[in-house]
Structure prediction request, 210 residues.
Amino acid sequence: MRETDLQSGAVIVTGGSGFVGASVIKQLVRAQRDVHLVLRPGASLWRIRDVIDQTTVHQVDIQDMERLLQTFRKVRPVAAIHLATYGAYADQASPRIALETNVMGSFNVFEAAIETEVELVVNVGSSSEYGTKLHPMSEHDPVSPDRMYGVAKVAQSLMSAVLGRRGERRAHQSATEYDGFRACRPSTYPKHDDCHSEDPRTGLSATRKD
Prediction:
């Protein structure tokens, strides 16, 4: 394994323009990190418009393994935070795209990280892995997805865990499942997020954007 410094090296963030991603990006920028965003072409940037000029943007679809790997090889990050996803919003209703993005796209991200000897990979799961419940959810509940997005996110989380157990990389499963274990709701229209939340375990915050 190459010599790395997790406190100062470059960080790649996939899906950095989303609800969680925008919070992560702003935290990294405040920490004066070398931040590289992997964003699909046409991604909406309203959440990060105030910090995007302090980052490097790579317009790459995570389903394009060749270009994704080229980006990882160019950046040589010490850490990768994987937040790109499809299916969390009502208008993202294609089961095929959910599987292609969250399963094969995530596999590409993990493979690119392994190929370029990324020291730390952070993967983020979803409450949709647990299906619809009539009681408050817990991360200790058995997974029971009731739509294809949840199925895809289960597979994504399992891939991350398997790679971690194999010892190929130090994998860290996000302590907070922001897609459902939260007291606020991200929004695409109007362009604001209807809450302020901060998780003390991660230090990630999300503020209302008008």
Q: What stands out?
A: Residues 169-190, 194-210 have pLDDT under 50 and may be disordered. Residues 73 and 116 are 6 Å apart (CA to CA). Residues 11-206 form a domain with the Rossmann fold fold (CATH 3.40.50.720). Residues 95-115 form the longest helix (21 residues).
